[in-house]
Design a protein that fits this description.
Layout: H1 13-21, H2 29-34, H3 36-51, H4 76-91
Length: 92
């Protein structure tokens, strides 16, 4: 978060700690989504989750990170996030 409370593309301290433990030097969302160490970490997590899935219907099929601001204040960001993800799936 920026000082004025708006979202920032900079990773927070917890995220920085995790990516550093992975051996990554990413400090922004844009750097993180391009880092093969992080994408591998995410893929491994999806694989583990899918191994524990009780059916194919509950498996993680698609994962994408949106590096866009979906801040809407007062909860409006959720609708915008859904809108952005629907648009992304239409273009795939």
């Amino acid at each position: 978060m920026n000082e004025d409370g708006t979202p920032s593309n900079r990773l927070d301290s917890l995220a920085r700690s995790i990516v550093q433990d992975l051996g990554s030097s990413a400090s922004t969302m844009e750097e993180a989504v391009e880092d093969p160490l992080i994408t591998s970490y995410i893929q491994e997590g999806m694989t583990k989750a899918n191994e524990q899935a009780i059916s194919r219907a509950t498996r993680v099929q698609v994962c994408c990170v949106l590096c866009v601001c979906v801040w809407g204040g007062g909860g409006g960001g959720i609708a915008q996030l859904e809108s952005e993800s629907n648009r992304a799936f239409r273009t795939i």
